[in-house]
Specification:
By secondary structure, the protein is mainly β. It is built from 1 helix and 15 strands, in the order αβββββββββββββββ.
Amino acid sequence: MSDRETAHAYRGIVARAAVRSTNDKGGSQTATVETHRHVERTDVEVLGIAGISTRPVPGGEAIVLAVGGDQGDLVALPLQALGNRMGGLEEGEVALHSPKGDRVHVKKDGAVDTTSSKRVKHKVKDAVVEILEDRIIIRLGEGVAAPRFVVRPDYVKMRKGAHWVVVKDEGIFCSVAPVVGPDPEPEV
């Protein structure tokens, strides 16, 4: 092999590629990339980070590797969406984020900030807390008998089975006359 052929072979082992599209339907994600001008490669397996799944919009970039120097066996490192990087992180911080500004930011002091343009949903077995733009919903279990709590701008409602209490600016409304009794959990 000539020095020129050797140089071309080495140069082809690692390349920066433009991501044209991705496919996330199979057991692994694949991408169609342009490795060099007018050189498009399809079904390039995208390597991932354990426990994190992403699928950037077309127009990002990837570093592709020719496994064993074989241009017919390309893999891509995790894809980067250009212009979609959350900067300003301090050392030791981690963030997951989307192009629309939704994010989970774990700060170095242990605080976790979550920002969403649509909904944040937390679920632990049958307990669900949903935070939406116009309401907060808390459910413990399924079905009509399950305890629920709803906060809206104009009222707060608690429900357990057929009984409910609503607090509004105009007053407190409930399904039955309230009974004064001991606090079942005074420390909460």
